[in-house]
Amino acid sequence: MSVPELAAAGPEGRVARTALALREATAAGAWTLLDHPLLALEVAGSPVYLEPDAVVVRPDGGWTVVEIKSFPMVDGAADASKVGAAARQAAVYVLALERVAAVTEGARVARSVLLVCPKDFSNLPTASVVDVRKQRAVTRRQLDRLTRIDEIAAALPEGVSFDVAERSAEELTAAVECVPHQYAPECLAACELAFHCRSRARQADAVETLGRSVRGELGGLTTVGAVLAAARGEEGDPEDPAVAALRRARALRQEALESAPARTPREQVECPC
Questions:
Q1: Residue 47 belongs to domain spanning
Q2: Which of 44, 56, 207, 234 gets the most CB atoms within 10 Å of its CB?
Q3: Which of 13-27, 140-154, 259-273 has the lowest mean pLDDT?
Q4: Is residue 190 in a domain?
């Protein structure tokens, strides 16, 4: 098995060198291992560089992604959640490889990946084939639905700039304020502007502060005030499933409170919410 050298200047050079090595290996019809190749995938109109652990080229022209993980495979099985995460990661590599295979004669990318893990908490590696067709399809749909960066830039008000080198703090603050916010609690773990967007969402009484899953269940109810009013029967269409569910939940809560045994003052505890 040959292991070609993939070193090159810059990410663009490494991507080009990887593509050349893949084409040469496919044309040669021999077993080839690409150690940490660099692939490119377009995300919302911009290139993103990806580095899988390895890619194996078979003599028949098949390309297979190899993922090496540190979690153990005990009695031939690994933790399902960790395997799922590895499959989602590898599915992105498969999509990136397919771009190269599309312009390489005789090449095809396997829709399954080779997962390599330690065997039974030892240093001995063991491998398992993982089907990533579902994860690949989901990732493909998500990428297709992303708005391109140039479209987002075109929607900004004229004259707005986020250039920290050229703009003052007051100008940057004004620029951020004029952009619509899309807050969710998950943003706190990944975005530096999460606290700013959370503050704006709370000021707008938006239900997004309760989480994306809750927002999805509430349909046309976009504010916390509207949700409470619908639950009390003051607003909303009774035929709306979200409104009906809120009123049913409120009725059940009232029923539970009325049927609860009375407590002495010592036993009563004020709800922190």
A1: 10-145
A2: 207
A3: 259-273
A4: yes
